[in-house]
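User: Quick sanity check before I run a bigger batch. Here is a single chain. Can you write out its predicted 3D structure?
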Amino acid sequence: MDTVAAVDKPAPLFTLPDLSGTERSLQDWLGRVVIINFWSAECPWSERTDLHLLAQMPAWGDRVVLCTIAANAHETPELVAHTARDRGLPLVLLDPEQKVVNLYGAQTTPHTFVIDQEGVLRYQGAVDDVTFRRREPTRFYLRDAVEAVLAGKKPSPAATAPYGCTIVHAGDL
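Assistant: Done. Predicted structure follows.
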């Protein structure tokens, strides 16, 4: 499937409910850098990413929004809410029909996207360079991408291969 989301193109707009049922739109955050993190309550790679992102967010302050999107078809809103609360995630959106998952071509949890202040997609891919053979990261792609965008520069690289748990689609159940 071809994705609509492409680096250096306007990020596809979406509106999804948060855990309290309030509709949230990507457009609401224009003027700020937005990290979209496709996420799973059950994936250990997502949990590892949550720890990294939550530690990093204070340094960026209000200039950056972390938008976590629950990506797996089989995870109930109750499980998502419980896990998000336990991890201290500030904003989790529900994508029960996986419309945004498909719109962005998300493959794994985590799969991250960085959108600049004008709404242009500037980075997509992995959080860092961990591999099967290298368990400790030597480069934090997501952090570097956000900091480049905050400095008015293009991230390099602008895309990396995401890794983590495969997103579970409704047809996989």
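The first helix runs from residue 44 to 60.

User: Great, the batch can go ahead then.
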